[in-house]
Amino acid sequence: MILHADADAFLASVEQRDDPRLRGRPLVVAHEVVACPSYEARALGIHAGMPLGRVRRRWPHVLVTGYRPEAYEAASAGLFEIFRRFTPLVEPGSIEEAFLDVAGRDRGDPGGMAAALRAVARAELGLPVSVGVGRTKLMAKLASRRAKPDGLVVVDAELESRVRPRLRLDELWGVGPTTWRRLHAAGLHVVADLHGWSEDDLGRIVTTAMARRLLSIADGTDDATIRLPGPRRSVSASRSLPSTRTRSTVEGVLEECVGRALHRVVALDGAPRVPRRIEVLVRYDDGAHVQQRGPLPSPTVDPEVVGATATRLLEQTAYEWDGRGVTMVGVTLPLPPAEPS
């Protein structure tokens, strides 16, 4: 069986854990844009990506905390250490979620193992973790979604046989708005509607890869393989912000992203892997992206050297003269291959 474990409102939960005054109160982790609302804030209608100014105007009582990357990375490390106590077969999904293959380790009671994992995370990290249990990764992830917040849902064989045919296609992991519109136009709304379709026929509506995936879901043969992460090929950091072309604002966000990315490089396990190149990404208010890449003067983790190169690449995006507002700035540091152990 597969577990999908996902820490609830992760950033906000870390803040509420570390400051008892924030517990049970509507809270957002934000700079200019909401990165993570607590569940109390979500109940008001606040969501990630909402401009902070709008939140302050409409809900002046909502508490606001800044972004503390070191605290979140430490909490994430603790979370994954707990995951690996239960099984070495852990596939990260993000800094706060993962799939775990517990077959042969759950003593025939995957729900009991999931409950134990949740209890350990709460006791040792002070964080709520929702867990879904299923035969495949899709079913486990759907179960964890239903379990939120701070719950546990087990999809056994009997429940899966009833639920799978009725799953809405637009709720399936990986089915985006464009794919959903095409499926809907073809009269395909739930998984049961896919029966009788061939890969060739479905491939005329969606991509071949998506056609194969949808048919495997309909047949119950979808992915249950845990893919262990290899050495990281790069580290990244990004931040959203309200639409702007103000140089000081954009460069301030860039400097922050450089610092966070370098912190992640230094914190990597194993022999040092010092970046030689850097990439700077700008997203505009119409959703378009512009990226600039270039070498560092020499392999380094010196913030001043990396920051100067990043600023030069930022200028090459010509964001100040583009006419569109910048809504996200990101930095990626490709890493040299890890040395064989």
TrEMBL record:
| One of the protein's GO biological processes | error-prone translesion synthesis
The UniProt regions of compositional bias labelled Low complexity, in chain numbering, are 236-248
Task: State what protein this is by name.
Answer: DNA polymerase-4
A GO CC annotation recorded here is: cytosol
Q: Spell out the reaction equation it catalyses.
A: DNA(n) + a 2'-deoxyribonucleoside 5'-triphosphate = DNA(n+1) + diphosphate
Q: PANTHER family recorded for this chain? A: DNA POLYMERASE KAPPA, DNA REPAIR POLYMERASE UMUC / TRANSFERASE FAMILY MEMBER
Q: Which residues form a coiled coil?
A: none
- Biological function: Poorly processive, error-prone DNA polymerase involved in untargeted mutagenesis. Copies undamaged DNA at stalled replication forks, which arise in vivo from mismatched or misaligned primer ends. These misaligned primers can be extended by PolIV. Exhibits no 3'-5' exonuclease (proofreading) activity. May be involved in translesional synthesis, in conjunction with the beta clamp from PolIII.
> What family does this belong to?
Belongs to the DNA polymerase type-Y family.
GO MF term list: damaged DNA binding; DNA-directed DNA polymerase activity
SUPFAM superfamilies (UniProt xref): DNA/RNA polymerases (SSF56672), Lesion bypass DNA polymerase (Y-family), little finger domain (SSF100879)
Identify the Pfam families for this entry. Answer: IMS, IMS_C
**Annotated region described as Disordered, given as residue ranges:** 228-248
Please state every residue range assigned to the domain named UmuC: 2-176
| Organism listed in the record | Humibacillus xanthopallidus
